[in-house]
Amino acid sequence: MPTIRSPHSPRVAAATVTVLAALAALGGCGSTQAGDPVTSAPAETVTSAPAVTTEAPTTATGSFRSVADIQAAGSIKIGVFSDKAPFGSVDANGDYTGYDIEYGNRIGQDLGVTVEYVPVEAASRVSFLETGKVDLILANFTVTAERAEKVDFLNPYMKVALGVASPEAAPITDIAQLAGKKVIVVKGTTAETYLAANYPDFDVTKYEQYTEATSALLDGRGDAWVTDNTEALAWTKANPGFTTGITSLGPADTIAGAVQKGNKDLLDWLNAELVTLGAENFFHQDFELTLEPVYGDVVDPDELVVEGGQV
Amino acid sequence: MPDLGLNVLFEGRNFVRLLGGLWTALWIALAAMAASVVLGLPMGVLMTSRHRLVKLALRGYLEAIRVLPQLVLLFVFYFDLTYVTGVNLSPELAAFIVFTLWGTAEMGDLVRGAITAIPLHQYQSGYALGLKPSQVQAFVVLPQSVRRLLPLAVNLVTRMVKTTSLIVLIGVTEVLKVGQQIIDRNRFQYPDAALWVYATIFLLYFLACFPISRLAQTLERRFAV
Fold first, then answer.
1. What is the ipTM of this complex?
2. Which of these, A30, B38, B65, B161, could form a disulfide with B89 (CB 3.0-4.6 Å)?
3. Is B39 in CB contact (< 8 Å) with chain A?
4. How would CATH label the architecture of A50-160+254-303?
5. How are beta strands A136-137 and A242-260 bridged, if at all?
6. Contact A175/A248 with Cβ under 8 angstroms?
7. Rounded distance, CA A271 to CA A286, Å?
8. Among all residues of chain A, which has the CA nearest to that of B137?
9. B184 at A interface, C-beta within 8 A
10. Please, which pLDDT band fits residue B86 given cuts at 50, 70 and 90?
11. A7 vs B contacts (CB less than 8 Å)
């Protein structure tokens, strides 16, 4: 059988090659930014680096954009969450809203550019920055040493710690009250590790899911639920009869924006912006607008909000 | 509780947004399928070639695409391509390329199968009538192959449509992501909205895929040999 068909192969091969070449060309069209994002990051010790990127943005100094580049382009790309209310979410009209978005809008306004929001997933935030697909990440990004090796964090604009939710009838307002009580945590959370390290004697029940933990608290199978303070506040606000008696427990993590490693020009501009915003208490207003409706007035804004980039 | 999560669907532009997400998923799948047909036909013909090198190369391509999860391919074309070459594709284009590479491999194999299923006497009869080899291919082999091929190809379309749910991970807001945005947005007011939103998405996928799947059945019956 094959002997009959073989004569056509070369011609069809030529056709295939042509089509594949066309596809490759199509792929090539999509490339908008050249530059090498990996090898170009300046050493961390550089102190006078901005001149390199601002003077010659078109040379291969990296795929990140300086402030001047962004202003020349007329828009900044900010990676945000699109499904993590109240930090970043999309409303019924398809518009981005939230604590991170208010901050992003203000940055766009002060840079004099329009803001292009790019929806990111928690796991791909670092990759979006490293590949220059966004200029800045404002996606409830917790500062960790591991992440700081790959991206440059700005000064923080928020801090989070643990919180303790309990029934209003028997509120837990001090961690010492939990001794001998049934404590609920969700597996794999900061709360679990914190309690195991600091209060190994507590009677802790661990659940796989948030919903299991909350129904256990509702059922009275536990006396208190230890979780992120933002989560505790939002849940107790939505569930009458429960209160977040402790709003700040354990070591506080900070939340900050991040730019691509080495983009010192944009980093410096944004940190200066944080100082300006601090002077007008911008994040307290942001808190009132976006977080208070969800967290209620149980929490003192100062326990969550960081002004001027200084904790 | 009188508040039905169902209301969430009709709040603001939510339903239109879901349809928009479905459209995003559909056009990427359909465009990739169109490209896969164009590229898969020659690939399938080539796979029946006698040249060992050609066969080996195409077989290698097919197996490589088959063993790699589509998600890995998406990350390779969206992130790794930029890391290595600096080329920055839009997520939609990256998705289109990945689905085309995958579709071409699958389509090529389907074409190969359809061609090898044509009995030898069909070729011989063609030659006996005085047709040139290219004419035998064009007028005898390909028309019969296409008949066997169509239902299988249509099936591939529905698989592609369903696999588009992965592209959210490179930042394309398709129907599933819109659904998650709506669910999260109403997490505090309507905790049971998830059920309604996912049910709606189920229905939308069904409405998109069912006609395609019916088409495959109809074609299969009409072309039954």
1. 0.81
2. A30
3. yes
4. 3-Layer(aba) Sandwich (3.40)
5. antiparallel
6. no
7. 18
8. A5
9. yes
10. confident
11. 133
